[in-house]
Amino acid sequence: MDRAGELIVPERRSFLGKATLSAAALALLSGRDVLAQGKSGGAGDVNILNVALGLEYEGINAYQLGAQSGLLQKPLLDVAVRFQTDHKEHRDALIATIRKLGGKPVEEKPIGEYARALKADTLKSQNDVLELAARLELGATNAYLGVIPSFKDPQLAKVAGRLAADEVMHWTLLNSALGKPLPAGGLPFGA
């Protein structure tokens, strides 16, 4: 936990810092079934993908809680719904991949469990909602960037890079909505 009380970011960093998706799993995620044929990483990949799926559920529910809070003004509510849709697409890809690998996707928890874990009861303003979302997006950015070096196939590294770019876009827009400046210096992500 850092000084800002980030609970989610360290979990995402440790998840992807200690375990990497196999080339076969990422091939399936990116729709490259031909690459994945005969290269399944088995139960280990399914377990990793289920952890990632759990994190996507968390992100989806964080945006749901923000949208239901009544704290987001219309333009930012639209952005939150859009970002939630992006995370739902990630969820769907993970579920399909887990099934292709012969695994069983983990179930989504009731929204109340996410509300407690994310301390939704402490969200008192639009900025509180945006701060939470920005922390989650930054954690996802750094997690995806952390796995890129593990790939031998440059196409799979490209997929992870594209996912990281999506998360950076989310973070940048949220950071801007909060009125925060761009990070100082070059290379602010992935550290």
Question: Which features characterize this protein?
Answer:
191 residues, globular, 8 helices, 0% strand, Ferritin, mainly alpha, 67% helix
Brief synopsis:
With 191 residues, this protein is mainly α. Helix content is 67%, strand content 0%.
Structure characterization notes:
With 191 residues, this protein is mostly helical. The chain has a single domain (8-177), classed as Ferritin. Helices cover 67% and strands 0% of the residues. It is built from 8 helices and no strands. It has helices at 8-18, 23-29, 33-36, 43-68, 74-100, 111-117, 126-147, 154-177.
Level-2 CATH architecture: Up-down Bundle
Into how many domains do the coordinates divide? 1
CATH topology: Ferritin
Tell me roughly what share of residues is in helical segments: 55-70%
Molecular shape:
globular
**Could you tell me the radius of gyration in angstroms?**
17 Å
Can you tell me the residue ranges where pLDDT is under 50 for at least 5 consecutive residues? 1-28, 30-42
Largest β-sheet summary? none
- Report, as a whole number of angstroms, the end-to-end distance: 16 Å
Provide mean pLDDT, rounded: 75
Quickly name the level 1 CATH class: Mainly Alpha
Q: How many helices in DSSP terms?
A: 8
Which structural class is indicated by helix and strand composition?
mainly alpha
CATH superfamily: Ferritin, core subunit, four-helix bundle
Write down the secondary-structure element order.
HHHHHHHH
* Total E-strand runs: 0
